[in-house]
Amino acid sequence: MSQESHSPGTVQRWSRTLIPTLRDAPAEATTPSHALLLRAGYIRQVAAGVYDYLPLAWRVLGKLTRIVREEMDATGASEMLMPALQPMELFEQTGRAEDYGDNLFRLHDRHGRPTALGPTHEEVITDLLRTAITSYRQLPLILYQVQTKFRDEPRPRGGLLRGREFIMKDAYSFHLGVEGAGGLNEAYDAMYRAYSNIFRRCGLDFTVVEAESGPIGGSASHEFMVNCQTGEDTILRCPASGYAANVEKCEIGERQWGFDRAEGTAEPLEKVHTPNMPGIDGVAQFLGVTPDRMLKTIVFEAADPDASGGVRWVLAVVRGDHEVNEGKVKAAAGFRVKLADEARARQAGFAIGYVSPAVVKRDGLHPEKGVRILIDPDAAQGSFRWATGADERDHHVRNFNWRREMGSILDEPRYVKVTDIRNALAGDPSPRAPGSKLVEQRGIEVGHIFKLGAKYSDAMGLAVLDEAQQRRSVIMGCYGIGVSRTMAACVEMSHDADGIVWPAAIAPYHVLLTVMKPGDNAQMQAAEALAADLASAGLDALIDDRDERPGVKFKDGDLVGLPVRLTVGEKALAAGGVEFKRRSEVGKGEVVPLAEAVARCVATVRA
């Protein structure tokens, strides 16, 4: 939706609402949004990761939610409400009780039945639909809600950015197929447009990035990230093509590799005793090499041995200064993998922490016995003299050479695959524009959309009869927006040394009327008349009628961050005017005629 409706605005007095501003932020406030939302009287902590939303915050959340609802309704979605309490048996049907682990709030009712506080509602909505629809004629369908969610974060931080209780909009779409009219792709594209509209209307600077699906699952997903230097997420972007992705998903362009060694690299393999080394940096220093000349081998195991074609173990080899990407390992392996259980891996013969690629030459671990090797191109360099584990506790080797140590195994594509399996970094080649390099920026995730496919339908038996009266699994999509998180992300993006600078669309009030002397009838009458006219024009006005010093009022006004401040004082009134100042501007305001003040405010807010 591109047009805003302008219903009458509201008027409130500061003295009649609760805005408990603070001069200093509590010590636990480590991010700008956490500190400023506390100082400006928007939130108060109840417990770790749990907050009261005070009147100003509730107004921001209300405006955010209104925009969300308008754009969701425009897609044809219908709003509903699901319970926060969810039977644990639903999570067990999909396997997510294990996936969420300790992040799931678990409790028992008085009858001993296990229950959880919902982190999301895929299971509940799937359970509803498997009893509510029976025919393809009832599809497609999109349902959404705005609901409180719960995740038992081990270390809540950043105020509303990572809490244990938060407000979220989640939507779910249901389809008979993926392609064509009424298919998942059509709904996904509609949600992509709706989300772009939502964040654009909220006044946010954002980037859409390709992303991993995480514990939600599914075949494809995109994150909507608010751009800000204090963001906790790293975004990698190709400046030439516009491609953007988060670290977990970002592809890397083509890199040269080869196993054959160059002349003069035939130094003998040397085993070195390396007891009690503090990580790869310490080992590298002890061996007299740099981390980028070490090989790091991470052992994975097949999560479902029956679906892995007989492969039990997967070795992922990257440079020592790089990090293995589990999602890429899964894609390269062609089946679901997980980090190997240390006890099982040690029993199989892997010296965890000291594994080398050459471990596959040992009896019982040859690729013919169900071991596969995935090697990142940056690690597949035969001309380098590598340091790596020695397949023996507290030992490493120097002068490892791929061709000499591995031999003909490297020439067997059924055993060895060279492919992108690491996290991307700034400076890596772009996967979309040859010659271009990836650049890094920071952001905060506020929205995430997923193509779920039949993951939940198959697990929970959600199927309908098609035109041929054959039962078919329903295809699903999932679409989330962190509403309370978006409020915090906006503050991270838009603030200065004096406080918050709200975009007009979600500011709790549009105009702050600061009355210099509330006991002066002329000043109060002028402020009330201006507020009434602003409300008639569709703007929300807050009258600061407190009996405080002007300096206190001005500081508090900047702190709460409303788009416009009108200062009603004796001198300006005597000249038939009022002082007008935009929050985004530094310095003093300008005196404008009373008759023009409302029009100036409207023009500023709706610019």
Q: What share of residues are in beta strands?
A: 25-35%
Biggest β-sheet description: 9 strands, mixed
Name the poorly predicted regions.
none
Number of domains: 3
Number of helices: 16
Task: Calculate the mean pLDDT score and round it.
Answer: 94
Q: CATH topology of the largest domain, which one?
A: BirA Bifunctional Protein, domain 2
The share of residues in helices is 25-40%
Indicate the multimeric state.
Answer: single chain
CATH architecture of the largest domain: 2-Layer Sandwich
- Structural class based on helices, strands and sheet pairing: alpha+beta
Span between N and C termini? Answer: 17 Å
Count the strands?
32
Please write the CATH class name of the largest domain.
Alpha Beta
CATH superfamily of the largest domain: Bira Bifunctional Protein, Domain 2
Query: What is Rg?
Result: 29 Å
Shape: globular
Name the descriptors.
607 residues, alpha+beta, BirA Bifunctional Protein, domain 2, YbaK protein, Rossmann fold, 27% strand, globular
What does this protein look like?
The chain is of the alpha+beta class and 607 residues long. The protein has 3 domains: 25-250 and 441-492, BirA Bifunctional Protein, domain 2; 270-418, YbaK protein (Alpha-Beta Complex); 509-605, 3-Layer(aba) Sandwich (Rossmann fold), CATH 3.40.50. Helix content is 26%, strand content 27%. The strands form 8 sheets. Strands 4, 8, 9, 10, 11, 12, 13, 22 and 25 form a 9-stranded mixed β-sheet that branches. β23 and β24 form a beta hairpin. α1 packs across α12, α2 packs antiparallel against α6 (184-201) and α2 crosses α12. The model has no long low-confidence stretch (mean pLDDT 94).
